[in-house]
Amino acid sequence: MNSVVCISHVPDTEARIKPAGKGIDEAGLKFIVSPYDEYALEEAIRIKEAKGGDVTVVTFGPDRAAQALRECLARGATKAMHIKGDPGAADSLGIAKVLAAALKSIPHDLVFFGKQGVGTDNALVGPMVAELLGYPQVNVVTHMEVGDGSLTAHREIEGAEEVIESSQPAVITAQKGLNEPRYSSLKGIMAAKKIPIDTKSLADLGLEESDVFNQRVVFVSIELPPEKSGGRKIDGADPAAAAKEIVKFIREEAKAL
Amino acid sequence: MAGILVYSEVRDGRLKKTSREVIAIAQKLAGSVGGDVAAVAVDAPYNTEVHTAALEAAIKERQPSVVLFPGTSNGRDLAPRIAARLNVGVASDVDRLEWVDGKLRARRPVYSGKAFATVDVTATPAIATCRPNAFPADEAAADPQVVTLPAPALEPKAKVVETRTPETGELMISEADIIVSGGRGLKEASNFSYIRDLAHAIGGAVGASRATVDAGWIDHQHQVGQTGRVVTPNLYIAAGISGAIQHLAGMSSSKHIVAINKDPEAPIFRVADLGVVGDLFQILPALTEEVKKAKTH
Ligand SMILES: Cc1cc2nc3c(=O)[nH]c(=O)nc-3n(C[C@H](O)[C@H](O)[C@H](O)COP(=O)(O)OP(=O)(O)OC[C@H]3O[C@@H](n4cnc5c(N)ncnc54)[C@H](O)[C@@H]3O)c2cc1C
Ligand SMILES: Nc1ncnc2c1ncn2[C@@H]1O[C@H](COP(=O)(O)O)[C@@H](O)[C@H]1O
Q1: What angle do CA A12, A95, A127 make, to 5 degrees?
Q2: A210 exposed, middle or buried (CB, 10 Å; 0-12, 13-18, 19+)?
Q3: A36 contacts in chain B (CB < 8 Å)
Q4: Which residue among A32, A60, A64, A113 has the greatest number of ligand 2 atoms within 8 angstroms of its CB, and so is best to mutate?
Q5: What ipTM was assigned to the predicted interfaces of this complex?
């Protein structure tokens, strides 16, 4: 069984965000494999370990994104494709078109994504790829089992969980809780160095720049939220008095009681 | 090309609150967009492929300028699918919408709320999913008329075979107006009762920091933050939570924030409107009592 995992390379979650130009200032930022993509990768590796086949990691990104692919290879992915370009200049559908085109050249039964890219927080690319390829999708998956040509996946919804049965090929977007991702081992890091990364340009995939970078969604501005001034602070040494003060706040300011 | 189509969800015969919120903002925008607001609901339980086809047919027939979805599990499952089918763009999880120079302008939190991006959705129809609690709905107003869309006969490749409701009776944090959250300061799993008691008294949902979820004290559905849920309730009460950047990312846009922590330097106080420096084991029971009193008066 072959899986493809689409990986985005994002600023570390601790990073201080500084707006700049059409996005953020990348200087000095540490980049990581987007956290939800780690659950996607782990699931694909476990399926490979149980059933054989390949796990190909794919990213559409600038030169630095190669590091994300190396990290995934070190954890157990068997192949990697790097499509060079700036996803920040494309909208989600543009990115989805790139990935869908790449998938046409990689044998696969399952296609994994993170439930959302940390940073963009869109949760769009996975289902868009599913639609472009005519595949079924199961989003926000917390548990899955694969059969021959089929799969069962648990989808998290508000206050409940759906059990979904699907045919293959299918798109799965991974939620936290799907599994516990492994770390890369030294042995894995050494072995990963021997695996070549298949580097492609948009033209290699037969894509038109004008379609990928078609401005269906156009950047206008980015700004930081207004700095909270930090409100009042009271001493809670007398719990009854503090409780009265809190209830007063809830009543008069939040108007919630 | 005119008007706004709202994908709506009905539960127990009533429009869900999230759908009413979207209809309310659609009605505000309609004056400048031109045309009417049509709230539509598909006449079948949710299924990605079936609802995509039903909505596609309605869009082709009505040719709206804008299609809005509630930012619920199903709304967010469907919007990208429809957009890819129609070759248009989506602004997801938006908390502000305007109509500027003939285009839908949307503001959306990025980097888990550490920044806000404003975008124009230029292709037609312009699609957006609306963040729950971001657009006020008129609670008292009667439900607007909903047009029922027939479900097309098609055999979907993926099907729901079962729905499981793990914790019955508990309010979900994503749609709650009030959230009471607990952190590692609770010391152990059983002490979540302090949080539950207050949440119950005040009519709120139970939230949690990742530290408590990772420790297995509470289910992940309750986690607030960068790798949990990003929430914007009217009132967020945090007890025994330090306020790590990844937690703040999930709750700092709440409208009113109360923090209880024994450490006066805890970073949570930086976002709190009211900070109480003290022992949660003493303050929470006192607060629960005070809330009960306030409710009966
Ligand atoms: C990639 C990544 C993603 C993450 N995502 C999230 C996320 O989504 N959500 C999240 O919450 N965290 C997330 N974290 C974890 C985050 O960094 C913190 O570790 C976590 O939020 C800490 O939880 P806490 O505040 O409950 O615990 P602590 O930081 O241990 O804080 C406990 C607090 O309780 C106070 N306290 C102790 N006893 C009492 C008492 N008796 N009365 C009053 N106060 C008391 C202490 O003063 C302290 O401030 C993430 C981390 C990473 C690296
Ligand atoms: N540039 C990219 N290259 C490869 N995969 C991507 C890229 N951008 C997004 N993805 C995948 O799509 C998921 C959802 O991203 P988003 O729609 O941006 O929230 C991510 O978790 C990744 O799995």
Answers
A1: 90
A2: exposed
A3: 227
A4: A113
A5: 0.87
